[in-house]
Design goal:
Blueprint (H helix, E strand, L loop, with lengths): L11 H27 L13 H25 L22 H4 L4 H22 L3 H17 L7 E2 L2 E2 H9 L16
Antiparallel strand pairs: 1-2
Helix pairs in contact: 1-4, 2-4, 2-5
Length: 186
């Protein structure tokens, strides 16, 4: 129906961005693991696991992530900023390569995303005393969903839909958040 979806191969700039972002992610994961292991605010004890510091913390992290990410993402779509940073990521109108499409973004954009993730972790730790186990699960679920958002699979659960992000790649004026589209209705 309509014109065919544009598919863009990975070029030199994409490979450079992917390399920079992979190194940046590695540093972030090392920092996150160090924080989980060393911070007196994060419990490593099995007996400290409870509903609030696991399921509650997981909910807090995903909500805070979208609260931080959606307006930042919206700002990246401003006409004065979009061609400088975010346009590269949107060259792919129908992302299908998982990490290769998710991570194929300007390093500044990647830094913004990592800072939003860090803010969500810190909020959950200080608000509901997130347990180390849930921080580990959150980061891995978040990474998996970012890849799923850039895959050809039509997955929906608990209000999350891959189709929302796919629609964002096709129509740049909707679905700025990653998991909940409430931002678009505010």
């Amino acid at each position: 129906t309509g014109k065919p979806v544009r598919y863009v191969e990975l070029d030199g700039q994409s490979l450079t961005y992917l390399t920079i972002n992979a190194v940046h992610e590695w540093i972030f994961v090392q920092r996150l693991c160090h924080y989980i292991w060393i911070s007196p605010d994060v419990s490593l004890k099995v007996e400290d696991i409870g509903i609030l510091n696991t399921l509650g913390a997981l909910w807090v992290m995903f909500i805070v992530l979208d609260i931080c990410y959606a307006p930042c993402h919206h700002i990246l779509h401003l006409p004065s900023i979009y061609p400088l940073i975010h346009k590269h990521h949107h060259r792919q109108h129908f992302p299908t390569r998982g990490y290769l499409d998710a991570g194929n973004e300007h390093p500044i954009e990647h830094l913004v995303g990592v800072l939003c993730t860090w803010a969500s972790v810190l909020t959950a730790v200080y608000l509901v005393h997130a347990h180390a186990l849930v921080l580990f699960f959150f980061f891995n679920i978040h990474a998996a969903l970012a890849m799923l958002n850039h895959s050809p699979y039509d997955v929906e659960f608990l209000g999350y839909s891959v189709g929302n992000h796919e629609m964002h790649h096709r129509k740049f004026t909707v679905n700025y958040a990653q998991y909940s589209m409430l931002y678009d209705h505010v």
